[in-house]
C-alpha cells in the first residue's frame, strides 16, 4: 500500500506532466500496477487494519440465534446460555458489535428550546461523604435542575431521595428562579415516576404550579442530556479537592460556585447562562399564590413511647396527646407535629440515621403525667378500703383468696364456670 504522498505525486506526474505509467513507476520506484491503482482511485489511500480472529468467532452463530429471539438479552446471560468459558470482555465486545442488527437504531434529535419552555431535573450522588451529626457521615443526593434555553444550572443537596424531600428541593430551586418552567423533565426516579406514571404527590405538585412533569423513556439518558452533562460538570469541576463540614456547608459552597459557573460561555448557545436567564425566566409561569404540598408527611396514633420516626430518626411528641392521631410533616430543616391543628412538637430535622431527638419539656410533662397517675392509683386504693362498725379499717380481699380458703381449684376443673351476682 502506497502512502498518501506517493498517491498525490503519481496523479500530479500523470496529469500535470503527462508522464506515462512506466515512467512514473521508474521515477518513484513502484510497480506499474501500483501506478494504475493510484490513477484509478479518486480518494487517497486509507489504511484499514485487517480484522483479527478471536475466540468469539466460533460462538457467533449461537449468539445470533439468541439475539434473533431475544434482542435485548444481557451479554452476561448470553454468555451463560452458550456456556462461554473465556474472557467475558471478548464476548461482550462481539455482542456489542452485532446487537444493533437485531434491536435497530434509535436516533436522538437535537432540540431548539424556547425561553421558559423546559427544565431538566435529576439526582446527582457525589462520592464525597458529608458529616451529618452524631458522628455519622453520609453520601447524600443533590437535586440538579438545568434550564433548556439558558442552560442555567441550579442545585441543592437534600436529605433523601424520598418524594417529599425531592419536591422540597424542586420548590427551593423553582422559587429561587422566581418563576416556573412550563415543563419539568425527569427520568424514571422511583419517587417521581418509577412505574412509568407520575406519582400522585408529584402530580399534585405540578398541578399547584400549573406546570407538567414529563418522564423520559426508560434507559435513555440522552433524553435529558443537558442535566446529565451538568452532573458531569459538577463531578469534575466543583467536587475535586473540596471538604465539607455539614450539608449546609455543602450547599453554601455549591451556591457560591454555581454563581461563577453560570457566567461561563456555553458553546451550544453561544453565550453565558446568566445573560440569557432574564429572557428565559420572563417566558416562564408565575409562581402560585400558595406553596405546594412538599416535605415528608404521615399520620400516626401516638404510642406510650411518645416518639415518632421520620427518615430513620426518632422525635419526641408532647405526651399529653398519647393515644390520639398526630400529623407529622418534615421539611429538610424542620419537623413539626400537630394534633387537632395544634402544634405538639417542633424540632430541627436531623439528617443522621438512628438518632433520638428529644425536647426536654416533653420529658418533664411525661414525668408529671406519671406522678399524677401514681397519685390517682394511691387515691383509688385508699378509697377501696372499708371500715368496721367500730371504726377500724378492713381491707378487701380478692375473690381468688376465697377460692383458696374453701379449697376450690378452678384450673383442675375446666368445666366449672364461675359466676358472680
TrEMBL record:
GO molecular function: nucleic acid binding
Occurrences of domain Integrase catalytic (ranges): 111-281
Gene Ontology process terms (BP): DNA integration
InterPro entries attached to this UniProt entry: Homeodomain-like_sf, Integrase_cat-core, IstA-like_C, RNaseH-like_sf, RNaseH_sf
Pfam families: Mu-transpos_C_2 (PF22483)
NCBIfam families documented for this protein: transpos_IS21 (NF033546)
Record-stated family: Belongs to the transposase IS21/IS408/IS1162 family.
Name used for this protein in its record: IS21 family transposase
Organism, scientific name: Rhodococcus erythropolis (Arthrobacter picolinophilus)
Designated gene of the protein: istA
